[in-house]
Target: Aminotransferase class I/II-fold pyridoxal phosphate-dependent enzyme
Amino acid sequence: MKVNQTKIPLYELLKRMARSNPISFHVPGHKNGNIFPKQARPFFESILPFDMTELTGLDDLHAPQGVIAEAQDLAASFFGADDTYFLVGGSTAGNLSMIMSVCSPGDQIIVQRNSHKSIMNGLELSGARPVFVAPEFDDAKGRYTAPSIPTVQEALRQHSKAKAVVLTYPDYFGGTFALKEMIELAHAYHIPVLVDEAHGVHFSLKGGLPASALELGADVVVQSAHKMAPAMTMGSYLHVRSSLVTASSIAHYLQMLQSSSPSYPIMASLDLARHYLANLTARDLELIIESATHVRDILANSELWDVLSADDPVKITLQAKRGMRGDMLAQALEKEGVIPELTTHSQVLLIHGLAPFTEADYVKNAVKRIEAQLKLTANHDIIDADKLFTENITTLELDYQTMQQCLRTQVPLRQSAGYIAAEAITPYPPGIPMILKGERITEKHLELVRQLLKRGISIQHRDISRGISVFQ
Model:
C-alpha cells in the first residue's frame, strides 16, 4: 500500500497546539517562550512555542502510540525499513544502541578500524572484544577509505562466531565501497551488518546518488538526518530491517541512552526532513546535482588545488597541490566567508546542500581573490599522507574488562611510545580515533599527533600538552 508522504503529523500537531496559545502550568520553564531573557528573545521566540513536553496528544518517544509513532512509520516507509526510530541524541545514540543490542561482555565483533568514536564507545560500554579490520589507503585521494573485501572475508573466516560486522558507509568525504558484497559475506555466516551511514541519509533518494545501506541489505542503519537533510542538529534516524537483529532490543537501549525529556523541535524536524526528502522530485534532484557540478566547475582548474572525483556528487573535496596545505586553503576560504566542513593536512571538504546553490557568483569571485592571495604565501612544503594502519586485522592489547582493573598513570606525550593508551586520542572532525583506548602507542602515532597539533587541528582531549593517560 502506497503511503501518503505529504503528511507531517508531528509538526502539524505541534503547530496547532502552539497557535492555540495555551496557558502553561507545566514544564519547560520558559512557558511557551513567555519567560526568557529579553536580549535573546528575538532569536528564540519563533521556536520556543514548539518546545513542548509530553502533553496530552503529543505522544511519548519511548513508548510511541500516537503522532510520534505515525511520524516514525512514515519514515520507515520512505527509507525502506521495518522499524525506524527518531534519535534526539544524534547518531551517537543510535551507534551505541545498535552495538549494545547485539553484544554482551566478551563477545567478538568485527569493526572497521576508522570508525567514529561513538562506535568505539559502544564497544567499551558493551564489553565486547573488537576485531578491527583496517581500511585501504587510496593513494590517488591521499586518505584511508574502507576495508577490502579480502580483509573482511578473512576476518569472518577467523572469527565466524562474531556477533556483528560494523562498517561506515559512506565515509566523511562521500566515498562508497562494495558494501553489498560485504553484507552478503557476513550473512553467509548468519552475522548481521550494522552500518554507520551518518553521512548518507540522502542516498535514499533515487537517481544520481549511490544506493543506501538499507537498499544494499544492511540489518541496522544509523543516519544523521542533520548532516545532509534539513533537520536540526542532533536529529538522526535508526532503521532496522533484519531477521538477525531484534528491534525490541535496540529500543530497550535507546530508552536507556536517550533523554527522558526528548526535544520536540528536534523530533518535528525529523518529521519535516523525511517529508522534504520524500517529496523531492526527480527533477529537483537533477537540479541539485547540476548545481553541485557547477560549484565543482567553479573550483576546478586552479593552480593551487585539484577537485577530486566523488561517489557522492554533493561532496566537493579540494586537494592541495605541492606548496599548499589544507589548513592554509581553509583559512583563506573562511576569510572570504566561505566556511568548509572539514580540513585535513592536504584536503578541504565542502558540502553542497540538498537545494540549488544561489551564491555561485560570490564563490567564483572569492576563488579569484583566494588564488591571488595564496600564490603569495605558498610555503612549498612537501605534503605527506598520514599512513597509520599497517596490519589488516588487529585486536586491542587489553580487553575492556581488564582495563577496568588496571592502574593508570600520566606520561608526557613524547615518552608514551610503547605504553598502552588508557584513553583515546581523537582529532575532531572527523571524530575517528587516531589512538584507541587499549591500543599500544607507537612512534608513528606520536609523529602524527605532533603533526596535527602543529597544524592547529582540534584534538578531543583534556590537555594533550600535559601528557597522555596510559596503563601501568
Observations:
- The two ends are 61 Å apart (CA to CA).
- Residues 282-299 form the longest helix (18 residues).
- The chain has 15 helices and 19 strands.
- The domain at 9-279 is CATH 3.40.640.10 (Aspartate Aminotransferase; domain 2).
